[in-house]
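Holo prediction — 6-O-phosphono-beta-D-glucopyranose.
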Amino acid sequence: APRAVIFDLDGVLADTAVLHRAAWQQLAAEIDAPFDEAIAERMKGVDRMGSLEILLERAPRRYSDEEKAGLAARKNARYVELIDRLDPRHLLPGARAAVESVRDAGLKTALASASRNAPQLLERLGIAGLFDYVVDAGRIARSKPDPEIFLAAAAGLGLAPTDCLGVEDAAAGIASIHAAGMAAIGIGQAEALAEADVLLSNIAAFDIGRITTTSGPSAR
Ligand code: BG6
Ligand code: MG
């Protein structure tokens, strides 16, 4: 049976995937880069510079590293402005209950968000105290789908990766969880999350009692 659940934040617990997307879309318009659903989906879970590289693949010109840093900073300034207004009402329905249910079941909880804004976001949403360990995204070298961030979460909890379950809304995140040797719970639409071991349409459907009996490393 799993001993911990490692949650992603944006798009799993917080309704912020749309805010990242809005900030990127505005930047795309400013530099005449195309932006569509497929690009937005690929950016999910990917760190800031990795997301920018995806946006720039079809930009009309090339950018220097210095210019890229400026573009990323511009996107982040807008995103920070958007999340500064958030409060606990911006948790996705059932998110707090999902994390609390894991704790109540005697399992540990960790957060594995690629966002450098995650600590402030947890405070704004009023859930910072619900995690035994929060990975510092600034210390992760390789973006999801690399397993580094989920392995760091397990290590931070003092557990083996196989003792942990990961919860993600992005294809890159599911791949990261699997590469770390954990079972993956996908939250969202099936098309993007075909690889998940358990698929739930939203975090409100998360039931730790059911998941521990139907999944886990032994089920893979
Ligand atoms: C992830 C989001 O959680 O964090 C991505 O899904 C985002 O969209 C990434 O790019 C990095 O976030 P930030 O806040 O450090 O730019
Ligand atoms: Mg996410």
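READOUT: The two ends are 13 Å apart (CA to CA).
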